[in-house]
Amino acid sequence: MANAWCMPGGKIAVYTGLLKITKNTNALSVVMGHEIAHAVAKHSVERMSHAITLNVGTQIADVFLGGAINRTRQTIGSNTGFDIFKLGIMNPFGRKQETEADYMGLIFSSLSGYDIRESVKLWERMAEKNKGKEPPQFLSTHPSSKNRIKNLQGWMDEVIIKYPPIKA
Ligand SMILES: [Zn+2]
Fold first, then answer.
1. From 27, 71, 113, 137, which residue has the greatest number of CB atoms within 10 Å?
2. What residue spans define the domains of the chain?
3. Predicted TM-score of the model (pTM)
4. What residues does the ion ligand 1 have nearby, CB within 5 Å?
5. Which pLDDT tens digit goes with each residue over 11-25?
6. 109 and 30 in contact (C-beta within 8 Å)?
């Protein structure tokens, strides 16, 4: 299992399986920075309140549509195993948070004195590991590795210059 996540309350869990991909502390700092950013930005709270709004909103809409949303949800769910509430509707929101966490994470990592250029190599290794398994971007809450790497490369120089290591 190669994963890391931020628990409500701000504790961060890293699976040892992920260490095979991070390989070094620079890459691990990018992962930690990303998860810390979720905690700092209170994304889990945002996500929860968004989910509640979404549920109430779609329930009201479905009354007018005579249950069409729920029927579609069940049909797609039984055919593909995916829940459209989590995929189609939740995702644009999830991806925005992921991109935000990537950007803030780079800053935290750079401030802490790590070499953030490793972030690109980290996501290349991740893509290599997930080869053939990577779902199309619209199916995933995470940006595709290609978009992610493109973003990181775009931010790299600016972050290195604007957020140099803090000397303790
Ligand atoms: Zn994330």
1. 27
2. 4-44+84-162
3. 0.69
4. 98, 101
5. 788 888 889 999 999
6. yes
